[in-house]
Design a protein that fits this description.
Belongs to the snRNP SmB/SmN family. By secondary structure, this protein is mostly beta strands. The protein is 11% helix and 30% strand. The chain has a domain of 87 residues: SH3 type barrels (Roll), CATH 2.30.30. The protein has a five-stranded antiparallel β-sheet, with no helix packed on it.
Length: 155
Amino acid sequence: MSGRTSKIMQYINYRIRVCLRDSRIFIGTFMAYDKHMNIIMHDTEEFRTIYPKKKSVNKVAHEEKRNLGFIIMRGEHIVSMTIEGPPPNDSHKARMKIPINVMSGMGRGISRGMAPMVVPPVMRGAPPMGFGAPRHAMDPRQSIPMGRGFAPPRF
């Protein structure tokens, strides 16, 4: 099974032609498949051959084309798959390289990746007399010690 899997895996992102039981043909970019051979394609076009009715004078078959876009095709209906072409090269992405220093002034959205470092405010000394808490609460030398209390008098 691994040989068959690796064989079809090498054609992911290729342009393929899929023929169905009812003689329809789909051409699109092959994206994925599963164990039932259901396939996913995008940028897909459907080609159908329309045969004229027996009573018509003009007995020429013509082909209709429909743009479908993104499709999931049931593997039960697939008769054959043929490679149409290699995956598209991304040469236009390579041409769009922008130096980093050009984009240094661009605004960026806020992300939740890492919390910003919070710096506590710097105290610039005690508040002036008469503002805030009473003086003995602010001065550590005069404050009442917190804890279990004083030792018993006999010790």
